[in-house]
């Protein structure tokens, strides 16, 4: 059984974070494990509280899973603080973890901050050099690179190259925030070649957890032995299906449907 570990925050509403990652791992045929970095009080209307876990609790979870079960891939999500990022980086090196997918979660859909400002530098210096692939959206990429948000595909390509210089083996820059396109275009960059991955843009407000789910799908496929291009293409298909058949629950931004890839393709 291929194994995948998510190191992220818990979403009490079930649409993002640890919950989304574990659903995705299960749907893609991997055994999912979790290390919870923070608890959030969250629903479709927004984030109502963030409660980071102690360093001791996070370290104990990491040691328990990695010393016994091990993992074929890791996906990081909401890490919240520089201290947590430094611990995670240390443990990834200690246990010689391969296939590290870094989703640099910074801001929730409703605008709540999920990463302290001081933690951005730790993310850049400690975690990105360990990453097999990073999966920022445009606002996250702009914050990492200290630049204005991108508005064109050419600017995205330039940003992907700059992100690659920070140390990850691969960059997937997600173009869902790019206005004016009928397609959602992501960029996969390996340091030499740019590959464009397109899908029809789906008009729905129910997109909670899309970033978490996409990154988790990449991790699941890497855990099963896919190369990066195959993993990203499957993840793109998985999240497109999940958005197409998204769930209109709650009074705000509903979640994607993690079962859609299995049920409707």
Structure description:
The protein has 265 residues and is of the alpha/beta class. The protein has a single domain (3-258), classed as 3-Layer(aba) Sandwich (UDP-N-acetylmuramoyl-L-alanine:D-glutamate ligase). The chain is built from 9 helices and 9 strands. A 9-stranded mixed sheet has the order 3-2-1-4-5-6-7-8-9, with helices on both faces. Helix 1 packs across helix 7 (210-223) and helix 5 crosses helix 6. The longest helix is centred in the C-terminal third of the chain and has 17 residues, at 228-244.
Could you list some keywords that capture this structure?
single chain, about 260 residues, alpha/beta, UDP-N-acetylmuramoyl-L-alanine:D-glutamate ligase, 9 strands, globular
Topology:
Blueprint (H helix, E strand, L loop, with lengths): L2 E9 L5 H11 L3 E13 L2 E7 L2 H14 L4 E4 L5 H13 L5 E3 L16 H9 L5 E2 L3 H8 L7 H12 L5 E4 L9 E7 L4 E7 L9 H14 L4 H17 L15 H5 L1
Parallel strand pairs: 1-2, 1-4, 4-5, 5-6, 6-7
Antiparallel strand pairs: 2-3, 7-8, 8-9
């Amino acid at each position: 059984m291929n194994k995948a570990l998510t190191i992220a925050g818990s979403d009490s509403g079930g649409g993002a974070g640890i919950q989304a990652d574990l659903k995705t791992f299960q749907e893609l045929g991997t055994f999912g494990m979790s290390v919870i970095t923070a608890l959030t009080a969250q629903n479709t209307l927004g984030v109502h509280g963030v409660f980071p876990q102690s360093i001791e609790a996070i370290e104990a979870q990491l040691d328990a899973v990695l010393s016994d079960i091990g993992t074929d891939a890791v996906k990081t999500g909401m890490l919240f603080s520089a201290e947590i990022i430094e611990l995670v980086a240390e443990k990834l090196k200690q246990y010689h973890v391969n296939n590290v997918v870094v989703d640099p979660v910074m801001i929730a859909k409703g605008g709540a901050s999920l990463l302290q400002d001081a933690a951005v530098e730790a993310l850049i210096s400690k975690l990105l050099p360990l990453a097999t692939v990073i999966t920022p959206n445009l606002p996250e990429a702009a914050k990492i690179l200290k630049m204005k948000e991108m508005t064109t595909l050419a600017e995205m390509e330039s940003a992907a190259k700059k992100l690659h210089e920070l140390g990850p083996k691969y960059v997937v820059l997600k173009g869902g925030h790019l206005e004016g396109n009928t397609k959602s275009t992501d960029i996969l960059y390996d340091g030499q070649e740019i590959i464009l991955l397109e899908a029809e843009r789906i008009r729905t407000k129910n997109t909670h957890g899309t970033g978490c789910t996409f990154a988790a799908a990449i991790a699941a496929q890497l855990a099963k032995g896919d190369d990066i291009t195959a993993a990203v293409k499957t993840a793109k298909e998985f999240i497109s299906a999940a958005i197409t058949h998204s769930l209109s629950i709650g009074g705000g931004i509903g979640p994607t449907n993690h079962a859609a890839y299995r049920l409707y393709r």
